[in-house]
Amino acid sequence: MNLRRDTVSPVVLYICADRALDAHREATQCARAEGQAFARQRQLTIAEVVTDLYGEPDPVQRRGWQHVRHLAQAGQVTAVLVRWPSAIAPESAFELRHRETAWLQDHGVRVRYTWEPLSSRSADAP
Q1: pLDDT, tens only, 68-86
Q2: Pairing of strands 10-16, 79-82
Q3: Distance CA 20, CA 22 (A)
Q4: Whole-angstrom Cα distance, residue 78 to residue 95?
Q5: pLDDT < 50: residue spans in the chain
Q6: What is the pTM of this model?
Q7: 14/52 Cα distance (integer angstroms)
C-alpha cells in the first residue's frame, strides 16, 4: 500500500551524527530528541528511525541511507527528517546532497530539517 495517499503523514527520522560506535552517542541522542520534538510539534508520525555513522561522504554508500531510499521508493514515507544538511552529505560533497535531495523529491518525498534555525526553511529544494 502506498502510504502517501493516506491521511497519516509517515516520516523517517534519519540520523547520521556520531563518528564511532564506541562514542557516547551524544550527537545521536540529541538529533533523535530534536527530531522527535519536531515531529510531535507538527503532528507527524515517525515510521522509523534510521541511523548511520558519520564519515562516509556518499549517502548511497551508507546502509541506513540505502534503507531511507527504499522507504521512499516504496512510497512508505512522505518526508525524511534530518537535523541539518551535512547529515545527508558534508559540505565538501554538497553535490551528493543535492543529488539525494532531488532523488527524494522525484519520489514525492520532502527533506525537512529539524534544527530550529533551519526548520522554517525545510527543503523542497536542496
Answers
A1: 999 999 999 999 999 999 9
A2: parallel
A3: 5
A4: 23
A5: 1-7, 123-126
A6: 0.85
A7: 8
The rounded distance, in Å, linking the Cα atoms of 21 and 15 is 13
CA separation for the pair 9, 44 (Å, rounded): 6
Q: Cα–Cα distances in Å, from 119 out to 11, 84, 106?
A: 15, 9, 21
Measured in whole angstroms, the distance separating CA 123 from the mean position of its chain's CA atoms is: 11
Q: Are strands 45-52 and 79-82 parallel, antiparallel or unpaired?
A: unpaired
**What single DSSP character describes residue 107?**
T
Reading the block at residue 120, the C-alpha cell is 522554517
Distances (CA, A) of 18 to 21, 29, 52: 7, 10, 8
* SS3 state of residue 116: helix
* Max Cα–Cα distance, the chain, nearest Å: 41
The closest of 77, 83, 65, 66 to 105, measured between CA atoms, is: 77
DSSP symbol at 98: H
What is 32-88 written as a DSSP string? HHHHHHHHHHTT-EEEEEEEE-TT-S-GGGSHHHHHHHHHHHTT--SEEEESSGGGT
